[in-house]
Amino acid sequence: MRTETELDEFLARLGEAQARLDEGFSRLPASPLPELGEDAAAILGEAAERLHDNYPYAHPLYAGQMLKPPHPIARAAYALAMSVNPNNHALDGGRASSAMELEAVAALAKMYGWPQHLGHLSSGGTFANLEALWVAGQLDRERGETGRAVAASDQAHYTHTRISGVLGLPFVAIRTDDTGRMDMATLEQALATEKIGTVVATLGTTAIGAVDPLDRILELQKRYRFRVHVDSAYGGYFTLARNLGAEARAAYDAIPRADSLVVDPHKHGLQPYGCGCILFRDPAVGRFYKHDSPFTYFSSKQLHLGEISLECSRAGASAVALWATQRLLPYEVGGEFGSGLEAGREAALAMHRRLANDPRFVIPIGPPMLDILFWAPRARTLAESSAQSQAIFEEAARRDLYLALAQLPARFFPAGSWPSKGGEAASNGDAYVTCLRSVQMKPEHLAWGEEIWRRLDAATTDAIDVNAP
Prior knowledge:
Largest sheet: 7 strands, mixed
Radius of gyration: 24 Å
Strand order of the largest sheet: 1-7-6-5-4-2-3
Number of helices: 13
Structural class: alpha/beta
């Protein structure tokens, strides 16, 4: 997938940076690295062979799950930092990388309109969301209001249910409307009980990229008292996109009024795994993190990142990689980074239009809100449609087009899409159908749209013909 010239340039730039880093410690007596030994080349070669057992995640023909290749500068900066292997839990373990983390997090906070904030990087969105809900629970406890629940949509990431269980907080699933967004009437009914302490608004649901109406959720704070946390682990960077629909744009424009937010730079931020981020609008919540350590915090009187994080050891290389990427690709509306997000969304819209004009497929009620789209084969029953989705998925993979499958409520599609449902209803009363799903998150997907469609078209023709009664 990479040309020999590109690889040579990458290694040359990394070598130059490594030499410059080594100069900074040249005053020290020589301490040679351990010898790799004669078997190293064979072992690395074997590792490379073993890694063939993967999908080609970096290639535009991989359009299945939320996997976006890290930018070359992020890879190089991460590898460079690994020669020091800093630990950003305390300044003793990561002096330069801790400073770079503070700068990188400040750039993210500025993107959301939070000049004052408290935040840090994390291993990913799961732990970042845990910290947000932990702080919410601590605030309720401080006010003597223990036992108030966390509410999120039934399309929110499943980790919110798990996290609530870990924290001992009740969890309430709010039904979504037929476009996959949190239903406001259902939410208000739950808020009227005065038992909801935190509402999680998802900006970019995992399955379909739906954007909860954050602006309308925040309006409910005028009548009810609750905290708003934004889980934008997937979709957070789309605040920079200029081609969002009106409803999504209104939600992103409301972010400055939320209480906390999670975003994953290892998704749209072009970073290696794992790199998440938690941000709090009110820096005063840092009081809940206070603790004493007999060995960690003696090198500086300044605030350590380990004093505002539930995680301890964290890879400083992640901070260096993010910092370097931000310097090369600043978070600017209309800039190169933001334009890449817009290309992914346009690719999803273009694919949606193709699907809408093909009688073999059923498309959902609404167009993609971000860069994720889903559809189903047209059939008499949900069961037949689900079976055809599976067959097309497998046939597409044989043609080196990698999609994904998702089980979604049939109500996300127009009424009458299936003459006979022929499927079992879940406990919430919804009937489900297995859909084909594509995440068009790479900017290259826009240019590759024709080729992706050609392979999908051929895979669909072969799969339906083979499975026809």
